[in-house]
Write a structure and sequence with these properties.
The chain contains nine helices and nine strands. The chain is an alpha+beta fold. A five-stranded antiparallel β-sheet has the order 2-1-9-8-7, sandwiched between helices. Strands 3-4 form a two-stranded antiparallel ribbon. Strands 5-6 form a two-stranded antiparallel ribbon. The protein starts with a helix and ends with a helix.
């Protein structure tokens, strides 16, 4: 019975995946924990929802309001990129493939109210540079250029694919209404998905976006090559060369550097506050942290406020992951020892029986022979009586 329970414990630790959607919500206070980690934070800036996931197993290490729907803002761009990376995998295009900017693309790039970078009509932009523009400066025009290219300029069809992929990945509380996270109406008529509400935000949960990050990192780990630098350059060596600084301040060289952080995407808007889906790797262990609803849009320093919470969740997560790994290893060792003892006992019993087998054969043969002799003598005696 002891070995049975040890085996159950081992299986639970080793094979917990993203199906562990019923993980208990934490009862600890993230503000207190963040202060204990050495950061000065205000209660008002606490994330409205947060989660820490083991990127190798999908196991939930921390969760608070994990299934409460919120606006992901520009984190939405990661689903557009996921669909792009699937097309790259299929060979339908390459990183060197180009998208020629239209007059509409140029007009979108000049909309001040949404995050963008300068795009010039008639210029061919390589896919690799559009990916960087999407994840680092969070360019809405670059995202829409990718979405339009993949859908032959049918915005609604592309959002259909986003929602279908979300369902396929197990993002059960997600609804996309646009490709980039900025409501379609903010594009001043240059981007208008016909079958979707142009005034509606996207909706998701921290659990769902941790799930998206989990699948992205599993299937396309090279995404971190686009997100692991604080400063990036696009269109290098051309008249359109540009440089951007990441909003992920937990990256090395950022305002709140944390060891091992190498991605993924931030997002913010008036309805969302400040969000981030991040990943970090230390040793052979990779974690995912998603926070949503940090601070308030009226205080633009919210882009910095989120990172002490992110770093604290990583710090606690790596400690917890190590603890669980050691427990799993210990349980494995105990189960292995018990199996070895059982095998040794079985081997001894088999060996003992093997040594006794000749004795059993001799004794058995003797008994059979004795019985046969007695039967013979009885029959002989009976025959003699009949002759008389």
């Amino acid at each position: 019975m002891k070995k049975f329970f040890q085996l159950i414990t081992l299986l639970t630790l080793l094979f917990s995946t993203t199906v562990s959607i019923f993980a208990d919500e934490t009862t600890e206070d993230l503000v207190t924990l963040t202060r204990q980690a050495g950061y000065e934070v205000d209660e008002i800036n606490k994330p409205k929802a947060s989660i820490t996931m083991d990127a190798d197993t999908g196991e939930i290490l921390w969760a608070e309001n994990a299934d409460v729907q919120r606006d992901p803002a520009s984190m939405s761009k990661m689903m557009t990129l996921y669909l792009l990376f699937e097309e790259l995998e299929k060979g339908n295009l390459t990183l060197d493939s180009t998208i020629v900017a239209t007059e509409t693309d140029q007009a979108i790039s000049q909309i001040y109210e949404i995050s963008n970078n300068n795009i010039v009509a008639g210029v061919a932009y390589p896919i690799r540079d559009l990916i960087t523009m999407t994840v680092v400066p969070s360019s809405n025009v670059a995202t829409v250029m990718i979405a339009n290219y993949l859908s032959q300029n049918n915005a609604s069809d592309f959002i259909d694919k986003m929602n279908a992929k979300a369902k396929e990945l197990g993002m059960t509380n997600t609804q996309f209404n646009n490709a980039s996270g900025a409501v379609a109406s903010s594009f001043n008529g240059y981007y208008s998905p016909e079958r979707y509400d142009n005034n509606a935000t996207n909706l998701t949960t921290v659990r769902d976006f941790a799930t998206l990050a989990y699948h992205f990192l599993k299937k396309f780990p090279e995404i971190v090559n686009y997100t692991n630098q604080t400063t990036v350059t696009v269109m290098a060596g051309t008249p359109y060369e540009d440089q951007f600084t990441s909003y992920n301040h937990s990256l090395p060289g950022g305002a709140y550097p944390f060891e091992g952080v190498d991605g993924l995407k931030t997002g913010s808007s008036p309805s969302a506050g400040f969000n981030a889906m991040t990943t970090a790797k230390q040793g052979d262990k990779r974690l995912i942290v998603v926070v949503m609803g940090v601070g308030d849009w009226s205080d633009q320093n919210g882009e910095f406020y989120r990172h002490p919470f992110i770093n604290t969740l990583f710090q606690m997560g790596f400690i917890e992951a190590q603890k669980r790994q050691e427990m799993a290893a210990q349980t494995t060792e105990e189960v292995t020892e018990d199996i070895q003892v059982d095998q040794a006992n079985t081997s001894y019993e088999q060996s003992f029986m093997t040594r006794l087998l000749p004795v059993f054969l001799i004794v058995g043969t003797a008994i059979v022979s004795l019985i046969a002799l007695l039967v013979f003598l009885l029959l002989k005696k009976r025959n003699k009586r009949r002759i008389r």
